[in-house]
Amino acid sequence: MGAPLNDERPERLIYLVAGEPSGDALGARLMRALKEETGGAVSFAGVGGDGMAVEGLVSLFPMEDLAVMGLAEVVPRLPLLIRRIGETVNDVRTRRPDAVVTIDAPDFSFRVAKRLAGAGVPLIHYVAPSVWAWRPGRAAKIARFLDHLLALLPFEPPYFDAVDLGCTFVGHPVLESGAGDADGAVFRRRHEIGSEERLLLVLPGSRRGEISRHLPVFGQSQARVAVEMGPVRTAIVTLPHLAPAIRDGTADWRGKPLIIDAADEKYDAMAAVDVALAASGTVSLELAMTGTPAVIAYRMNPLTAWFAKRLVKVPYASIVNLVLERGAIPEKLLSDCTPEALVAELKTLFEDGQKRDNQRSAYKEALKALRPAGGSPSQAAARAVLSAIAGNGPGTD
Fold first, then answer.
1. Are residue 385 and residue 245 in the same domain, yes or no?
2. Which residue segment(s) compose the domain that 338 sits in?
């Protein structure tokens, strides 16, 4: 099905495939680390975005062609997606790289990997699927066509080792986000917020559906907190393309929330506030990096929630709680995500300094567990890729 590796090539050729902005960020860091680990004796090909382009990747086609979500978006673009899969597979076979690294975006990545299985090229996937949360049978299925996985969470490798699919824990990329260097005092001065003013940060999610579900309940919660506790200012961090929806959805909120959509202010805002109310997601780890006490919440539409209750196998949504195997950070999910429940947790955090300190201690413990041995996550990922190329079979430590 394919040619063997080209051992006469003076440098390694790594073929990378990223299908969305988060994968592009992972890919860019991995490329930088691979250049460092090889002393520059590496070149790249594949599919990626702006971040990977900066590191030297000339994308086979625009990454945006793959960035579709939801049945209504996917169906009309199926012919294009199918063509892009074929183009990627053919390009890999033509270039004969030393390894293929697909990055997240499993719907596209796994279809490419299935067609390349047995071609004599190590197939590595970066970001292990969450088989520990639901559909554990997926581990055995992907073991049929992948050679190795790079996992972000320390408890993931055993799920794949059990089906003879090597999996290396490389650490979570949030550790390289820069969130730990945030300056809350600068943010308060910039926006003329006094050091003694109480400030609540609201993070309603990064998808339009999440925003529409969360803004009403989050708005009721912030209003009740202000009524019961006295003045509390509110800030909201979002993305530029979502800011208009946020402004519309908060037009009737108590007080005028400060809406932040500049990427360079995101972490400073997190560090500046007293307490955060956040939709469950990677943002919970960013709050851990900035040491921001938080309440994690999440709502789904009723049908999705019905399925989630029956399929999801883990007791927590927050990665901090999952890593620590205890409810260190309060979570109010699905039917428990009500103004009454959120207000009670928020008031406790505002009023109880010991509770806030306990959360910060839990954050430090979780972040330590998310750090790989001997370097950064991108360095660990680069070493695992090079080890797979060398045929050493990277371990799970």
1. no
2. 179-369
Rounded-to-integer distance, Cα 176 and Cα 154, Å: 17
Residues 383 and 337 in one domain: no
Q: Cα–Cα distance between 87 and 27 in angstroms, integer?
A: 20
Whether 283 contacts 334, CB under 8 Å? no
Angle at 59 between CA 58 and CA 60, to 5 degrees: 120
* Secondary structure class of 100 (helix, strand, coil): strand
If one counts the domains in the chain, the total is 2
Does some domain include residue 101? Answer: yes
Is there a single domain that holds both residue 164 and residue 105? yes
CA–CA gap between residue 107 and residue 365 (Å, rounded) = 33
Non-local CB neighbours of 59 within 8 Å, separated by 6+ positions: 46, 47, 48, 49, 52, 53
- Residue 237 pairs in a beta bridge with 260
- Which tens digit of pLDDT belongs to each residue from 257-292? 999 999 999 999 999 999 999 999 889 999 999 999
Contacts of residue 394, Cβ cutoff 8 Å, sequence gap at least 6: 148, 166, 168, 383, 384, 387, 388
Instruction: Give per-residue pLDDT as tens, 366-397.
Output: 999 999 998 999 999 999 999 999 985 444 34
Q: How many CB atoms lie within 10 A of CB 299?
A: 25
CA dist 331 and 62 (Å) reads: 38
**Tens digits of per-residue pLDDT, 296-331?**
999 877 666 666 666 667 788 899 999 999 999 999
End-to-end CA distance of the chain: 33
Q: Which two tokens stand for residue 67?
A: 């960035």
In a domain, 45, yes or no: yes
| Overall residue count recorded for the chain in this entry | 397
Span 247-260, mean pLDDT? Answer: 93
CATH code, domain carrying 234: 3.40.50.2000
Sheet with 199-203: list strands edge to edge: 258-260, 233-237, 199-203, 275-279, 294-298, 331-333
Domain for residue 5, yes or no? no
Based on the domain organization, do 313 and 219 belong to the same domain?
yes
What is the Cα–Cα distance from 381 to 149, expressed in whole angstroms? 10
Token pair of 317, please? 């949504």
What is the C-alpha to C-alpha distance for residues 98 and 385, in angstroms, rounded to an integer?
A: 10
Tokens for 351, please give them.
């009023």
* Domain-located, residue 66: yes
Token representation of residue 371? 């750090």
